[in-house]
Amino acid sequence: MSHPTGSAAKSAPGFYEFVALVALMMGITAFSIDNLLPAFGFIREHFALGNPNDVQLAVYAYLIGIGAAQIVYGPWSDVVGRRPVLMVGIAIYIAAGVLALVTDSFNTLIVARVIQGAGAGAARVLAVAIVRDRFEGREMARIMSLTMMVFLAVPILAPAAGSLILVFGSWRLIFVAMVALALVLALWFGLRMPETLHPEYRMAFSPRAIFAGMKLTVTTRRAVGYATAMGLMMGCLMAYVGSASQVFQTDVYQLGSLFPVLFAGVAGSMAVASFLNASLVRRMGMRRLSHGGLLGFLAVSVGLVAAAVAFGGKPPFWMFCTLIALGQFLFALTVPNFNSMAMEPLGSVAGTASSFIGCYTTLTAAVLGLFAGRAFDGTVLPLSLTYLVLCVLALVATLWAEHWRLFGHQA
């Protein structure tokens, strides 16, 4: 682990504050998705949307913005540092949140969500780069797991927070909450987080140097393989998030106001897994844990498809929820370690690498989730098939990254 020097070291956050602050950087992206889910019905009604699946665009437009913008933030932060780039991203996020708050056009709302995602992309990519600046190896995997555990508290609380906000006003107040959270992040980060970019890794502004960093990233087999597997696995998660309101709240299981409770329960399984991962990864290694998690996720995906087919697309509530929660538990044992293993060989270009990997995985997840969400037909079969197909592809990508063997050298 490296440490800030000089006067910055005196004000640097301690271990748990560091984890919490990085988790908030990542968590603002999830908060801006999940607290909007309970408002889908109100947004659909407000804008008189003919196709009930259209409201999902408010999620996927945001994800596309996050993914596309990340390719810029990492190289830029390798030149000027992490702090100024994050502040610019937060400013963009806030401006877009205000636009979403005041618009009366659904098309403008979608544009605002793309821009909002573009701002949030800075927090997403720099969170990973800052962790890589200060940690490596299993310790990096441990920090990412702890960060993910705090981060996953957001999906537990965000839908309930969105529902509570709707009690006091319209769906527009949810965007007020997003802007307020971004202001908290800007203040906390500005006061407490020193610059983490190592002086020897700071790049001069040079398209050639940026291209060289990108080339190193895309030609490192382990990085590309695990990034691909991670994007495919995240596609499963985004398919679930985009379809969750219709599956649980309205069309299939019709939980209504109980939807935030169910969503929190599933997210809670991911938080538990992240906590276990932080402990187990130091003893078992990233490969053993993540490869086992991936194979378990594949078995759950087969179970989901079998249940969907056997019960005409509407399996018993307890059965479907159990399988989904187990799948998300295994997801949280897999993806953080995939992220760490993709970043491990790229410490000298951490910002650029994090940008590329974040852009690649987020756009992959957004596009795959969008297709899965648009395929929703009033049953859980499209979601279940998405899990199975994407998991099989993720297994192939993992095997390729590891030269066609699992559970190899334990990192």
From TrEMBL:
The keyword Transport applies. The keyword Transmembrane applies. It is found in: Membrane. Gene3D superfamilies: Multidrug resistance protein D. Residues 15-406 form the Major facilitator superfamily (MFS) profile domain. InterPro entries: MFS, MFS_dom, MFS_trans_sf. CDD domains: MFS_MdfA_MDR_like. It comes from the Bacteria. It is a multi-pass membrane protein. The chain crosses the membrane at residues 18-43, 55-73, 85-103, 109-131, 143-167, 173-191, 223-241, 261-281, 293-311, 317-338, 350-373, 379-401. It comes from Xanthobacter agilis. This is DHA1 family bicyclomycin/chloramphenicol resistance-like MFS transporter. Keywords: Membrane, Transmembrane, Transmembrane helix, Transport.
